[in-house]
Specification:
Blueprint lengths: L31 H12 L6 E4 L6 H13 L7 E5 L6 H12 L10 E6 L6 H13 L4 E7 L7 H5 L2 E4 L5 H15 L2 E2 L1 H11 L3 H12 L4 E2 L1 H7 L5 H12 L3 H15 L3 H12 L6 H19 L4 H16 L3
Parallel strand pairs: 1-4, 1-5, 2-3, 3-4, 6-7
Helix pairs in contact: 1-2, 3-4, 7-8, 7-9, 10-11, 10-12, 10-14, 11-14, 12-13, 13-14
């Protein structure tokens, strides 16, 4: 088992691993519409300022790296600066590192360099204001590619200077394609049920998918859905279903005991339990109207937990509401 092939480089937010990192657009998985548009821009050897927005693990940093490699070829390292804005997010970074790099000409046939600002939504407002002027002043010698989880945290003047591409969580077919690609080369045995379990656990995050495969493969080359469930930090759906069925049948004490047993045995936080309950509510054999009421109550309890309430008391209150709902109150 070549464990190092799965491990991303330090501070590398890409969904690709070092061994499987593609240099061409054809190697990307998912985000087909975005990839086609960016590929067209890159083939023209000229790109505008770009803003990639979307959830973690969906390929934003990977696409930025591929764009740079396509533009500059072997000289991409000399013409590319990557900064993680969550670590270096002050105005001094924009005034010093960014300006020093942007004011010099590029090497090679492409007339501009590329600066990639990862997690740009972590930049302070002052740094963003300074960045907007830098983007204008050095347009001839530099292009900016920024990635963020929430584009609303980027000030409007910067958004108006960029072409915005919105990434989405990867679909099951894309995750499945990547899993089979890695399993074939690492000689892993996976069933359809295992792939389904990995997809459910990753929730469309390809980076999380690869991490789960790495952790599972270090235990056994034959990966089962039970092994995946063991590694996932969350309650097993079957156990949560039992808790909810006890509550809806009116047996509050057994529901409480089972929930406490699940939390202590699996070392699961109240927030993780709430998420599991919210998912399992829709699999219960009850009326849709009741599912809506229970989901609303689940959301209320989740808000209280985030605000700092005691998780055991709030979860007991949630179970009590399920008991009352089961009795038609």
């Amino acid at each position: 088992m070549e464990t190092e092939s799965f491990i991303p480089r330090e501070n590398d937010s890409s969904i690709w691993t070092e061994k499987y990192r593609p240099d061409k657009f054809e190697g990307l998985v998912g985000q087909d519409e975005i990839v086609n548009k960016v590929q067209g821009l890159t083939k023209a050897m000229n790109i505008p300022h770009l803003l990639f927005a979307g959830p973690a693990g969906t390929g934003k940093s990977t696409l930025a790296l591929i764009v740079v490699k396509e533009l500059f070829g072997d000289t991409w390292k000399e013409n590319y600066l990557e900064l993680n804005a969550s670590d270096e997010r002050g105005i001094d970074v924009v005034r010093q590192k960014v300006k020093d790099f942007a004011r010099t000409k590029a090497l090679g046939n492409v007339p501009f360099k590329v600066i990639f600002l990862d997690e740009a939504d972590a930049l302070t407002k002052e740094a963003q204001q300074a960045l907007r002027r830098t983007m204008e002043n050095y347009t001839k010698t530099c292009r900016f590619v920024m990635s963020c989880n929430y584009s609303s945290k980027i000030i409007d003047p910067i958004q108006s200077r960029c072409v915005i591409f919105r990434f989405k969580l990867l679909e099951k077919k894309d995750i499945e394609k990547r899993i089979k690609f890695i399993a074939e080369r690492e000689k892993l045995q996976l069933s359809d049920a295992t792939i389904e379990a990995i997809y459910e656990a990753s929730e469309g995050d390809c980076r999380r998918t690869i991490n789960l495969l790495q952790a599972s493969a270090s235990i056994s080359p034959s990966i089962t859905s039970e092994l995946i469930q063991t590694l996932v930090a969350g309650a097993k759906p079957a156990e949560i279903k039992i808790v909810l069925e006890y509550a809806l049948s009116g047996d509050f004490l057994r529901a409480k005991e089972k929930l406490l047993d699940v939390m202590l045995k699996e070392s699961i936080s109240g927030t993780d339990v709430i998420k599991s309950i919210q998912k399992e509510v829709w699999n219960l054999q009850i009326e849709d109207e009741l599912k809506v009421r229970l989901t609303e109550k689940t959301g209320e309890i989740e808000f209280r937990l985030v605000e700092g309430s005691d998780e055991f008391i709030q979860l007991e209150a949630l179970l009590a509401s399920f008991v009352l709902a089961g009795k038609g109150v």
